[in-house]
Known about the structure:
This protein is of the alpha/beta class. It has helices at about 5-15, 15-20, 45-55, 75-90, 125-140, 190-215, 230-235, 245-255, 280-295, 305-325, 325-335, 335-340; strands spanning about 30-35, 60-65, 100-105, 105-115, 150-155, 160, 175-180, 180-185, 225-230, 260, 270.
Amino acid sequence: MRPKTPTTKYLERYAEPEVRQRLSLPRSYRTVACIPACDEADNLPATLTRLAQAEGACDALVVVVLNGREGASERVHEANQRTAQHLRGQADLPQDLMTHGTYRGMGLVLVDRFSTGQRLPHKQGVGMARKIAADLALGWMADGRIERRWIRSTDADVRVPPDYWEQPGQARPGTAACVYPFKHLPEGDALQRQALACYDAYLRYYVASLKRAGSAYAYATIGSLLCLDADAYAKVRGFPKKQAGEDFYILNKLAKVGRIETLSGAPLELAGRTSDRVPFGTGVAVAQIQTQLAQGQDYQVYNPQIFDALKAWLTVLDDAGEHGDIERFEEGLKTLPELVRT
């Protein structure tokens, strides 16, 4: 008997129930992207249109998990119903729990986790929705219905560039995940735009500082930018089922099994709106910064010396690891204060 692959083990033991109930796709696709959508009636159609206009879209499949949590407001559930009606009308989809159709020449799968009896548990959210979609993509890869082994995960309010489907082709061997380049689109009044500019600058400062320190974790942790190697995804047992932060946690796990590579090319354009749909993230951060600025408070970020200390620590650790000498490591620890000062 041939040994089971990480993908086979994952699909058997850790994948969500939807995978066992997955459709038999009527055709094969070259690439795939996954979108968790909640309360996005005003944004998802534009995102899908941009995906359909990107190069190679005729051989691409998009998996949309339309979701709402138990206990969400009636307004959210009504918005999800409107989204479903639009998708079913545009792609000629029946009202089943999982359906396949064509949206502007691009393959589309709609998964119902929004209607009564199908909603996500109160303490789950975007992480679960991302996991369902990515697990389905992995299942169809195992079926031979999706050719390339990259699982893209983006959001319902993103504008993708023309080379979105092609950018991961530049990734080097051994890459566990790619992160697309990005830029934020200013929205709202002058204060909201200032808050977004502060947050965007912080994100770039943080990644650049980690890179200067020599950290393996120098990448943006934004869910709409993700592109995951299928085998690496299976090895780390998929997305955490969290209300927020699932992007941070899966990249943290993937960095332990391979390289996280930031792609070059045209950036994804991200919405700069405020939001309270998740406990933290861009929308929440922009709202909080906006409040601070309105109260005359400065927006503060990590002291650069933190990253100097990190660089010194990594230098000592790398040296000790290279020589395998505990005494050398202990001596290196004594030099840390001097290394930080320089």
